[in-house]
Description:
Elements: E1 6-19, E2 22-35, E3 39-43, H1 50-58, E4 65-68, E5 71-74, E6 77-78, H2 84-90, E7 95-98, H3 102-105, H4 112-123, H5 129-142, H6 148-151, H7 161-173, E8 179-183, H8 191-208, E9 211-216, H9 219-225, E10 228-233, E11 236-242, H10 243-248, H11 253-260, H12 301-305, E12 310-313, E13 316-319, H13 321-324
Parallel strand pairs: 3-9, 3-10, 7-8, 8-9
Antiparallel strand pairs: 1-2, 1-4, 1-5, 5-6, 10-11, 11-13, 12-13
Helix pairs in contact: 4-5, 4-7, 5-7, 7-8
Amino acid sequence: MEKQDVLLNVQNLRTWFNTPEGVVKSVNGVSFHVDRGETLALVGESGCGKTVTTLSLMKLLGKNSVVTADELTLNGRDIRALSKEEARKIRGKEISMIFQEPMTSLNPVYRIQRQLGEMLRIHNPGISRTEVHRRSVDILRKVGVPNPDERLKVFPHQLSGGLRQRVMIAIALASNPAMVIADEPTTALDVTIQAQVIDLLKELQRDFNTSILLITHDFGVVSQLANRVAVMYAGKIVEEGPLKDVIERPLHPYTELLILSIPGIKVKKGGRLRTIEGQVPNPLYFPEGCRFHPRCPSACDRCHREEPPQITIGGQTVSCWLRAEEGQYDT
Length: 331
């Protein structure tokens, strides 16, 4: 891939938290990139470190966090070197985030026009009230909010879940950022509204050539939106590759189980869904060797002792002793 095509480049990201119980290693050596105009899905169960990864990129973590990386660039700019004020200036303008739950992300005591207008005023100093109103109406209309003039006057609780999510998307897109991070954008929405939000993100990406980093646990959503997939488990990326390759030939047992736990991708009507026994380990006490081995149906003795290397097979990368010992991979 040409260097100029890479918008976001993350190499060996580590995000640790100092707590009274000890050091919590939430993200431990994560690497990925997002190209201009593409959607990369970061997939995994709750507790895998997906949201912490994105908050590290946005510089929105607390004082007890320690974030390091070999490389962390957005549009060629080193995010690590940004001061708090510089980071505030790029948030919303160059990189925006659609947070997980719009009812808790939107301020309940302010009308929509104030919350949307604030984003426009921050990144457009001196903009008139008339222009803020015009742009607010325009962006709400673009994201499919009916009667945008009237919706600007209401409070968040007066909107349905689907409309609140559209308002969140409008705020994220207000200053036309190059990248949008969508953190579980369809969670808590009914199936019909989920489909509408997915179609909206596709349309906006096509119209604005926006790059999307999609955070989700649901391969059903991934299969409709993503170009590439990075599967995350216990603070590490265990598999990465083009969407079609990962779905048709998952290389890591965790990836395969995630896919087989969702109806309609590989498990057809009447088929039996798989479950993943156990739960994501506490980041204070990650197991030795492969972190997935306590839950893995294919684990061998070596998985318990040694951390697997990352290998490349075709267009996919995977960290798994099962694949490494097969010996059929690219060097």
